[in-house]
Amino acid sequence: MNRLTKETSPYLLQHAHNPVDWFPWGKEALEKAKEENKPILVSIGYSACHWCHVMERESFENEELAAIMNEHFVSIKVDREERPDVDAIYMDAVQAMGIQGGWPLNVFLMPDGKPFYGGTYFPPMNWKKLLYAVSEGFQNHLPDLQKSAEGFTENMSFLESIKYGLQSDEIGFNIDDLEAMYQKLSGTFDPQWGGFERAPKFPMPSVWLFLLRYIQAGGEKKEEALAHLRLTLSKIAKGGIYDQLGGGFARYSVDGEWFCPHFEKMLYDNGQLLSLYSEAYSLTELPLYQQVVFETIDWIEREMLSPEGGFYSAQDADSEGVEGKYYVWTHAEIHQILGEKADKFCRAYQVSMEGNWEHGVNILWKNHTFLNSDFADEIALLMAYRNQRIKPGLDDKMLCSWNGLALKGLVDAYKVFGEEKFLDLALKNASFIEKHLLNDNQLWHSYKNGEAKIQGFLEDYAAVIDGFTSLYQVCFEEKWLHLAEKLSLYVYLNFWDEEDELFFFTDKNAEALIVRKKEIFDNVIPSSNSMMARNFYTLGLILDREDFTDLSKLMVGKMKEMLTKNADYLTNWACLASQLVNPTVEIAIVGESYLDFRAKIDQKYFPNKVLSATKDKSELPLLEHRTAFDGQTNIYVCFNKACRRPVQTVEEAWEQIL
């Protein structure tokens, strides 16, 4: 038993009974390293990480290896989901060493926290040799290690503007810029399986959201883009990466066919994929996409919803120590459960007697398009059987940023499908964030067992502001909009770097680390800077705050040159750029039927808009001094602060917009 027993993170608690004398990240460990002049080992992972579990079993539960670690190092365990700031610094350092990053991440530091060596997973014998080698180097070659540590730290301290040659560009964006971005992306499309020609394959929601916006903006290759979008989303929805029985997406596919998942399910993926599939349905009206949304929300509600209204972080890949065991099937099991219905089900979901995966088991996936509801009775029987199995571990901490992404996903699903349950879940989740993760204008990053902790990072503010702003635009409860505005002002005052004209990842009032980093590249989760740039743009239009829109345009303008050349790393920035090619329409609705009119407006795919609405009166800029004539609901359509005459039908409004 070690110091991790007092933590709330499920990942840290998994290591609480290791013979390693683990410390959580904090002053105690850092001061001990300085006092005893020992190198620090920082080991970073997360609860749903398969290879983290493997290294724990092989090395951190090994008494001999633990004794070496305890004698020669101060060992710190970090949950990367709780401390993305710490993870980002040492991941960058390892990559600067020329090592492929990933988790588990094991980094060796000087007593002052500066990194000098690191890597990811190490087998037990390699780990033992490395521990001795690092200890010997620290004892006998300290100046060399110190020099390396200083160099890696200095490399991380450069301004993004200097590191990437970012320069302000006030010209703006045009359709040719979007063509350049699309061309960069399409060059490596996989024409057979969708996505990109590589493995493993991650869903990458912001890539396909950009394609949707490129299509809507009238891109030259919009038909090609639409075909690839449909191919990709359909292959993902039919693949093993999607849980065909219970809904929800795994983190990635090991192969290039979306067949074999790395089985953990993460809230952040599923929240974003709700947005993506809802938007894609709005454009394509493919029933498969609708079913994916409904099934995934059922999974989120069933497996991930806390009594307080927050959503848990993740479900593990492993159960009973075996990756994927909960999800896979033998041919005999399915025949035993389904009887005479088994043959048809096995053909549909590609189940074979010898197994389509390893060890004679099968992953359910489809080779042609049909709906899971076609096999509703069979799925109910298999789900009842599966529910008797030992479930994968649940990471039951609730992260502010990931809840913000889930909130946005639920709102987008409600916007498209009008299902009241989706709005109810969204409102409960927003209330959870307001009650448990918001203190005045500051956010907390993590919540569990009634305790909120760790000052919010930029990603927390970015995702929650987006969620609150989106929620306002479907229910028009103004408190969500005002909270989004207050949080945005806090971000500007406490995260903005005047010199670099971008936002730091950490609050200026938070714990000081060896460097204060910024996040600009979009990955499986969009970068917090790109999300904030979009937030300031949307809020600037709704609230008529030119300071917000100017800030947004300044940020995306700095990214323009890199964006047109490297859109594959900057697709959420590209989504914002697509809104700047044509004027964003501002729609104000006033009158008794404002909610019905909103629902009708959102039936057409048109992402380049903002909405504001009220039943009678409001002091919001888009609604001020606007009334409903003769008891009729009026729609006001505006571009660049110039408004058309008010109309009383959605059809008339679309005539003014298009």
From TrEMBL:
SUPFAM superfamilies: Six-hairpin glycosidases, Thioredoxin-like. Gene3D superfamilies: 1.50.10.20, Glutaredoxin. Residues 1-156 form the Spermatogenesis-associated protein 20-like TRX domain. It comes from the Bacteria. InterPro entries: 6-hairpin_glycosidase_sf (IPR008928), Ssp411 (IPR024705), Ssp411-like_TRX (IPR004879), Thioredoxin-like_sf (IPR036249). PANTHER family: SPERMATOGENESIS-ASSOCIATED PROTEIN 20. This is Thioredoxin domain-containing protein.
